[in-house]
Specification:
TIM Barrel; globular; alpha/beta; eight-stranded parallel barrel; about 325 residues
């Protein structure tokens, strides 16, 4: 699988990444055997970038991912995790986590973007994963914590990066406006934008993507299926969009895009994976994958050629922003 360099850092990431939120029991339990099989399939497919976070299953995702990666040579993969939510003992457990993960709630999340919180979070992640270092560290969902995240957390991460402890630093969010601020106003190298540069939402073209291009920084695209609406060949009512039931107008829009895909000999999910790479600042698409079947299918979709004429026809029908770049010529594959 091809790799792309995170600009101005020593790191390269494979064009597909493994998003490990679902192996932290997002929405429903994932048996440990299924999680391991999914990770094995990702490795066999050539995926060498893995993303996790303490938030995912109250540490379960980090534990499972670390158990898998510890048997691999450390220089053969890139791993990212996140800071901003410390895991602390839960004095009032109810039995099950209340933030979307099917795990016991013996721990709870505590927002903390202080310097000490960042250092503690990284130490805790290294303990849970059993790894000796992290390659990328993102601030996780700092939407309501800009000042502390920008003035305390990011300088702490920059210090670790400058010492060679971390290879790259940034932020990951479900919005793009603040991510652009992190690129412009802090030492961030790379940002992970979830759901804001997809076939159904190109709002990142108004802020974070031009900022990345102007500053020579990089973007990882996540949430490219928009919670599932773009994951099948034909969208249907009852599917999710941004974690909720998809509005009928978006189901219809996705169906219209699927019609164009069929005329060009491709599919909606294949186009959804390929689309973020229309912008030269995007270096990776990270997909949440629960099973080996999902991994194999997405890896196969990734290698299918999506004709450039598809984007032109989608623009012509008003199904893509006219600002979507027309050339990928300055992508820097290894």
């Amino acid at each position: 699988m091809r790799s792309l360099k995170i600009r101005n850092t020593p790191l390269e990431v494979t064009e597909l990444g493994f998003g490990a939120s679902v192996i932290g029991n997002l929405y429903r339990p994932t048996p440990v055997a299924d999680a391991t099989d999914a990770l094995e399939a990702a490795w066999d497919a050539g995926i060498r970038y893995f993303d996790t976070a303490p938030h995912y299953g109250l540490g379960l995702s980090e534990i499972r991912l670390g158990a898998f990666l510890r048997s691999r040579r450390r220089d053969e993969y890139v791993i990212s995790s996140k800071v901003g939510r410390l895991l602390v003992p839960n004095e009032r457990p109810c039995g099950t986590d209340t933030e979307g993960f099917v795990v016991r709630d013996d721990l709870r999340r505590q927002w903390d973007f202080s310097r000490d919180g960042v250092l503690r979070s990284i130490d805790d992640t290294l303990r849970r994963t059993g790894l000796d270092r992290l390659d990328i560290v993102y601030l996780h969902d700092p939407d309501d914590h800009w000042r502390q995240a920008a003035e305390e957390a990011m300088p702490a991460l920059a210090g670790l990066r400058d010492q060679g402890v971390i290879g790259a630093i940034g932020a990951g969010m479900n919005q793009s406006v603040m991510l652009a601020r992190f690129l412009r106003e802090t030492a961030a190298d790379v940002v992970m934008v979830a759901g804001r540069y997809t076939l159904l939402d190109q709002s990142a073209l108004g802020d974070v993507l031009p900022a990345a291009r102007a500053l020579g920084k990089s973007v990882v695209a996540a949430g490219v299926f928009n919670s599932g609406l773009l994951s099948g060949d034909r969208p249907a009512t009852g599917m999710k969009y941004d974690y909720q039931a998809a509005p009928l107008d978006l189901v219809r829009r996705a169906a219209a895009i699927a019609d164009v895909c069929e005329r060009h000999g491709t599919t909606l999910p294949a186009a959804a994976i390929a689309f973020p790479f229309t912008h030269p600042s995007v270096v990776n698409v990270t997909l949440g994958m629960r099973t080996a079947v999902q991994v194999t299918r997405n890896a196969e979709l990734n290698v299918r050629a999506v004709p450039a004429g598809l984007w032109d026809e989608l623009r012509a029908h008003g199904l893509l922003s006219p600002d979507v770049p027309r050339s990928q010529s300055d992508r820097a594959y290894r």
